[in-house]
Amino acid sequence: MLQEERKNYVLTRLETQPSITVKELSDTFQMSEVTVRKILVQMEKEGLLKRSWGGAVRITNAAYEAPYSDKESRCLEEKRAIAKAAYDSIKDGETIYIDCGTTSFELIRLVVAGKKRLHVCTNAFNNLAELRKAPGIQAIMIGGELRPAIYSCVGPLAIQMLKMLVFDRAFVTGDHFSLEHGFSVSRLSDAEVKAAVFAAAKRKYIIMDSTKYGDDSMSIIATPSDGYTLITDWQLPEEVCHGFEKRGTRVVLAQAVE
Questions:
Q1: Contact 33, 26 (CB under 8 A)
Q2: In terms of Cα–Cα distance, which of 113, 104, 112 is closest to 83?
Q3: What CATH number should be reported for the domain whose range is 3-57?
């Protein structure tokens, strides 16, 4: 395989998935990981991709947001592991907030099947529809401007409602995260709601799978600082975990669900 063919292969893969690992490319190209890294370094210099720990991620527009339907089947094993780790932190009788998003929906499913006597608040109408299956849970819907692409509500009305509430724990999702800028989403209106959620929460959790690491979206929702717990999957490199913890963010690596 020629060098140009290898580059095209990498770019084609990144069109269908958000990231690719050095090990995967090493196995495919039948070459050392050192050589693969050199190829990725060159591609980054050419502006074709962005290198991440252990591989590379595609370059996306900072304002780009994939619709919910495109994300449902991605990294499902990792999302379920993250949801299980988040679920295990919840105590019966607590008041919790669960954000919109595909990882959040996996958490909602566990809550519905398990713990009772919870007060669950959400701004996602698919979450609310799932919560109706658990009559023992008191559900609160945050209303506002409808964002149909991600099944949620945002805007001033949502923020005003959140100012009236206090949560024992809040589980919030995002589009990307990095050591340089923290946790981010593509829309300012979404970031404002998440900020209001964190302001109302005693314990703050960010739940994102590791493929979202290494890039940034337009609107920052939290910086790597004291008071946040990042729950991600087992594939986030150890060096990155240490980097977040040095900055004050606790990291929980969820393991694959058997």
A1: yes
A2: 104
A3: 1.10.10.10
Residue 161 corresponds to which tokens in the numbers above? 């409602």
Q: Give the 3-state secondary structure of residue 31.
A: coil
Average pLDDT over residues 140-161: 93
Class of the CATH domain delimited by 68-254: alpha beta
Q: Is the dihedral of CA 100, 171, 142, 118 positive or negative?
A: positive
Please tell me whether residue 156 adopts helix, strand or coil conformation: helix
Mean pLDDT score, 172-194: 93
Q: Which among 62, 7, 43 has a CA at the least distance from the CA of 218?
A: 62
pTM of the model: 0.78
Rounded CA separation 161/142 (Å)? 7
Chain segment 59-79, per-residue pLDDT in tens? 666 555 665 555 555 778 999
In a 3-state reduction of DSSP, which class is residue 116?
coil
